[in-house]
Design goal:
The protein has 402 residues and is mainly beta. The chain is 6% helix and 43% strand. It has a five-stranded antiparallel beta sheet with strand order 1-12-11-10-9, with no helix packed on it. Strands 22, 23, 24, 25 and 26 form a five-stranded antiparallel beta sheet that branches. A four-stranded antiparallel beta sheet has the order 4-3-2-31, with no helix packed on it. The termini are close together.
Length: 402
């Protein structure tokens, strides 16, 4: 998803003309929140970017006409695979079967899937051909750290988040920036208590890096349980935006409810009423908000296909007859003149919808509901214009689209 090139693009041009980034050229952290919002509950310590101009990360992305490549884990779960639209395997590599015991997928980018090995601190990229390419060595504080990564919009850089916790469960998040052709450098350090004002907080997990900055989600520890969209209620409970140049951090983007998504033009979607009457509040940069009442107790996996069209999943608490814990439905919701027209794209038993659903161009890629009596699922694409479904391949997990 691309956001408009605004202030950061101007800064990028100036910085590119002035030479490599130093602490003085980055500047001290600016105001941490826009006018009228609360001060974010964190502290930031700026450190110099030692290698590579950060401006290279902020240049406009190149338009791509390449066919989509899907990142999946096959039914065995022992590899990560890159497959094309015909379901043919373009490349693959082994991944850890036990958490924190080998390379694990952490993010997908324009050229492949990023893998991080907490036992060695090695970050690699699985491209369309050949073995994974080593990108960097980032040694975590411990193998229990939470590692996440987001690639810059132009694909030339990445930000890696390493969150660790002290004995009181206070979180420290170190954000490293890697510039193409250079070694990674510590960009900034953010600290936050694990729980603030009765809500889950903890460290910051890198969600994505767009032209308007880096989205950081909540990253608590000591939480768990079962239920639909539970992981989203933790990771998206409080989402902020980091400016990678000024190192300023905004207040939570959704002051009411939890974050759902933000569109290319800045239109914001927040989810309220979860576990009772789930509603998606869509607020454009100008004009009134529009509320999508899902008519279900739970919703998640909200994504903007366009600033006026969303896709999302809902959950039906009725226990299906085949023994699955709940049923889910994938929806498309165009908004025209404040009116919402919801379309049911796919329904079925199990938690299939919250495990996938990624918009790619004019279609959405998703895992199908489980086949009754088996654990088999397929990756399909659904054309958002025609509703036609195309099966790609059998998959255990859907990780992303390059």
């Amino acid at each position: 998803m691309r956001w408009p090139i605004g202030t950061l693009a101007v800064v990028a041009v100036v910085m590119a003309a002035c030479g490599p980034v130093t602490q003085s050229s980055i500047g001290s952290p600016g105001p941490s929140s826009p006018s009228g919002t609360a001060t974010p509950m964190s502290t930031a310590t700026a450190t110099p970017v030692a290698s590579g101009p950060l401006a290279a990360c902020l240049s406009a992305p190149q338009a791509s006409s390449a066919a989509p490549v899907f990142v999946i884990e096959p039914p065995s779960g022992s590899e990560v695979e890159l497959v094309n639209a015909e379901g043919s395997i373009l490349n693959q590599t082994a991944i850890a079967q036990v958490p924190d015991s080998g390379p694990e997928p952490v993010a997908h980018g324009a050229d492949g899937e990023y893998l991080f090995d907490p036992t060695t601190g090695e970050l690699t990229l699985l491209g369309l051909q050949g073995p994974p390419e080593k990108l960097a060595q980032v040694t975590p504080v411990s193998d229990a750290d939470d590692i996440s990564l987001a690639e810059s919009p132009n694909g030339l850089c990445w930000i890696l988040s390493d969150t660790s916790w002290d004995s009181n469960q206070n979180a420290t998040t170190k954000l490293y920036v890697g510039v193409s052709g250079g070694s990674p450098a510590l960009l900034t350090t953010l600290t936050r208590a694990n729980s603030l004002n009765g809500t889950y907080a903890g460290g910051y997990s890198a969600l994505r890096w767009d032209s308007s900055g880096v989205l950081l989600g909540t990253d608590p520890t000591g939480v768990g349980g079962g239920g639909p969209f539970l992981s989203e209620s933790y990771s998206l409970a409080s989402v902020v935006r980091l400016n990678p140049v000024s190192l300023s951090v905004t207040a939570s983007l959704c002051s009411d409810g939890r974050f759902a998504d933000v569109a290319a033009d800045g239109t914001l979607a927040c989810l309220v009423g979860q576990n009772s009457d789930a509603q998606i509040v869509v607020t454009p940069p100008s004009g009134p908000s529009v509320t999508i009442d899902t008519d279900q107790s739970g919703a998640g996996r909200v994504e903007f296909a366009t600033p006026s069209t969303l896709t999302y999943c809902t959950t039906d608490p009725t226990v299906p007859t085949d023994g699955a814990e709940w049923a889910e439905t994938l929806w498309e919701a165009p908004i025209d003149g404040g009116q919402v027209a919801e379309h049911n794209l796919m329904s079925g038993d199990g938690s299939w919808c919250e495990a996938g659903a990624i918009v790619s161009g004019d279609s959405i890629a998703e895992l199908t509901p489980w086949v009754s009596g088996t654990s088999e699922q397929s990756l399909v694409t659904i054309d958002l214009t025609t509703g036609q479904s195309t099966t790609i391949t059998v998959a255990n997990e859907f990780l992303g689209v390059l």
